[in-house]
Specification:
single chain; 383 residues; mainly beta; seven-stranded mixed barrel; 1 helix
Length: 383
């Protein structure tokens, strides 16, 4: 589409010619700006009318339109503007949409390319994880349910996978003053980056936190956390993020804390924090801290401040409970100087739970280790 008339500031023209020139110019300007879509409807095959409709008979080269998407797309997309016929809608680089790129409630701007007979996304509204103006689409999937998981690449993409092993549970013991319980170790973490083609799959298992120790008679050792895995027959990847060991419980002078897990197969591998050993008068100890992003987890013995988000600090009293960080940072289980509290029944994901030494009557329940997780962060390939 090109302008049909330039308005001269100096050439003398009569009123009728000037009016015609102005009309041609204004109509051409409006031809580039389709305006804002109204009454959008549908999923994938979207229909809408235009706020500005003067002279509109269908999209032309260079025309732009802004649309508030009514429903997130689940596959390839078309626009039918003012009942003038469906036209393909594609990504900024010309690739077809495959699902999830344009989200409900978000405003996007599109430009029409007459040579390709298609609309291309140009910009995005606040809150969308998709991208226009030539930038790649960036999204993520987080798997937190223990057991099998899988991810299939929706398009050619560069992927970062972060796998977190599960934490071990602390030991549990009864009220005798000569008994002690150490905490569980934290799970390890592995990070890998790979290129995936559309349709490639990665899968594995999210490890479960070590089962809670239950000291129905004297003492019960904690249990190891499960291993989180990432494998694929389509790309070269084989990650094993081992869980942390369980804590010890019993009457020995020293109860060794659970060792943190060790990861293999990642481009970067990080160890889980170890739980503290129980010696001397302290009857219980903290669990190990889960790795933050791109660093080893902190050992409970190296943690000096509670609530710092890594290994929780131990207390020198008779009861151990998990420490729950209000910001949901993965702490180890803290050995607190309070009565056993059944509402504190979880620790940060991947962290080890604290040892439990209870003086009240009844079953001496420990706490499970924190479950693992997998994060798949993927970005549309740009080449």
């Amino acid at each position: 589409m090109t302008a049909t008339r330039a308005i001269s500031k100096t050439s003398p023209v009569n009123g009728a010619v000037f009016t015609a020139n102005m009309a041609d110019t204004v109509n051409t300007m409006f031809g580039y700006l389709a305006g804002v879509a109204v009454t959008p409807a549908g999923t994938n095959a979207y229909t809408f009318t235009l706020e500005i409709t003067t002279g509109f008979t269908g999209p032309t080269d260079g025309m732009t339109v802004s649309v508030k998407i009514p429903n997130t797309n689940t596959g390839a997309v078309t626009f039918n503007v003012a009942s003038t016929g469906a036209k393909a809608v594609v990504q900024a680089n010309g690739d077809a949409f495959v699902g999830g790129e344009i989200e409900d409630g978000t405003v996007y701007t599109f430009v029409f390319l007459e040579s390709d007979d298609e609309w291309r996304i140009q910009s995005i509204g606040s809150g969308s994880s998709s991208s226009g103006s030539g930038l790649p689409f960036t999204r993520f999937e987080l798997f937190t349910t223990t057991g099998a998981w899988s991810f299939t690449a929706p398009y050619d993409c560069d992927v970062m996978v972060i796998a977190q092993g599960a934490g071990g549970s602390g030991g549990a013991t009864e009220g005798s003053t000569n008994r002690r319980a150490s905490g569980g170790g934290a799970g390890s973490q592995a990070v890998a980056q790979r290129a995936m083609s559309s349709g490639d799959e990665i899968s594995g298992v999210v490890g479960a936190g070590g089962a809670a120790a239950v000291a129905t008679s004297v003492s019960d050792n904690g249990n190891a956390g499960g291993t989180t895995t990432v494998t694929s027959s389509d790309i070269s990847i084989a990650i094993s993020a081992a869980g942390g060991d369980g804590g010890e419980a019993g009457g020995a002078v020293t109860m060794t804390g659970g060792v943190g897990g060790t990861a293999t197969g990642g481009d970067r591998n990080y160890s889980g924090g170890a739980a503290g050993d129980v010696t001397g008068g302290a009857p219980s100890q903290s669990g190990g801290g889960a790795p933050p992003f791109f660093a080893d987890g902190v050992d409970a013995d190296d943690q000096t401040t509670t609530g710092a988000g890594l290994g929780a600090e131990a207390a020198t009293d008779v009861v151990g409970n998990p420490y729950l960080n209000p910001a949901s940072i993965p702490d180890g289980g803290d050995a607190l100087s309070t009565t056993g509290n059944s509402t504190l029944d979880a620790v940060g994901r991947g962290a080890g739970s604290g040892g439990v030494h209870r003086t009240d009557s009844g079953t001496r329940n420990g706490y499970p280790g924190g479950d693992g997780w997998v994060l798949v962060w993927y970005t549309e390939a740009t080449s």
